[in-house]
Amino acid sequence: MAQPPQGDGASLPSAAMPPAMADIKSQSVDDVIKEMNRMPLFMTTLDETDGEGGDNDALEALKALAYEGTKAEIAENFRQQGNDCARTKQWTDAKEFYDKAIAALKAPKKEPDPEDGPPVIDVTDVEVNEEEEAEKEKVIEEACYINRALCNLEKKNYRSCIQDCAATLRLNPSNIKAYYRSASACLSLDKIPEAVDACSLGLAIDPSNAPLKALQTKISARQAHLNSVEKARREREAKAASERATLALALKSRGIKTRSTDQAPDLEDAAVKLEAALDPSSTLSFPVMLLYPTHAQSDFIKTFAESETLSQHLEYIFPLPWDEKHEFTLNDVEAYMETIAGGLIKVGKSMTLGKVLGSGKCEVKDGLVKISVVPKTKSTEWIDEFKKRRGTN
């Protein structure tokens, strides 16, 4: 076999490198990546400038292509991009594309003004069959509305979903998806009558539609749950009203006066109540605040029965931890309550609370009974100070 002629070691001449490639070869890797990122095909981040603050002509040209053609062609292009995003559950991006498609369909025809720059939506004039074009636009618009309804449903924009379904049904009253998605959104908002109505209308068109039947079952279950919750609420309110009426009757029958103000203290769960909430003859109990005005101290008794006396409670409260002089003993204190007229009455320590309150001279203010306890040795001085304060008020 013939062998190729052996050279003398000298290299053969190579073809000259294209200028563009030679220019790239002379750049650093970072510069090449930066340059490629300005090209729409290779962009990894959106750079709308030429890198120096000017316009990126390549990108602007690519964006302009999205608005070339008839309204139907422009809208269809955006719709397809929206569908691609929806397939991968990119609901926000999909919704934006459907927004653009609908905007393209609704854009008015107008001649571009060169001084205004490129319009947001510029529809190129071409000769078309207007009836066919209008039908295409209607089909695309219906698809965009119902697909945008899905995006809003997935994004939990339920009211926007319902609006898009309504727009779909105005274009096509037989669109089953619109009934299904509208009913789903209404169910999520607990708008049960509207959800039932949407399901019924859809099933009237397609009685065998499985998704609508399944949704109808969910709506019925939710309705039953809400009815149960509402029934329980009404029963609670009725019971509370009966308890309030029974308590009012119990207080009135005992001659106990009450008054409420706008400055009621927070007693948490302490309250005037009957031992048997619906039996006015059962034992009444009251929250009681024991005040020690000479020492600016107090004690709170959450449940003080009407049949109990002050002595019964003072026996376990005394001695007081802060009473260093031992002034507060059962035999060395007196108790007082403020009267309705603004004076004071002495409370017998062996008198039941029910008898004290039933005298009609004092009242239960904001659901709390207040009793001042003072040492006998200081009672006269304290009463005089009380009267002086009342006199200046």
Automatic annotation (TrEMBL):
PANTHER family membership: TETRATRICOPEPTIDE REPEAT PROTEIN 4
Protein name: HSP70/90 co-chaperone
Domain Cns1/TTC4 wheel: from-to ranges: 278-386
Region listing for Disordered, in residue ranges: 1-23
Record-linked Pfam families: Wheel
InterPro entries with a match to the protein in the record: Csn1/TTC4_wheel, TPR-like_helical_dom_sf, TPR_rpt
Keywords associated with the record: Repeat, TPR repeat
Species whose genome carries this gene: Paraconiothyrium brasiliense
Gene name for this UniProt entry: CNS1
Biased composition (Low complexity): 10-22
Recorded family membership: Belongs to the TTC4 family.
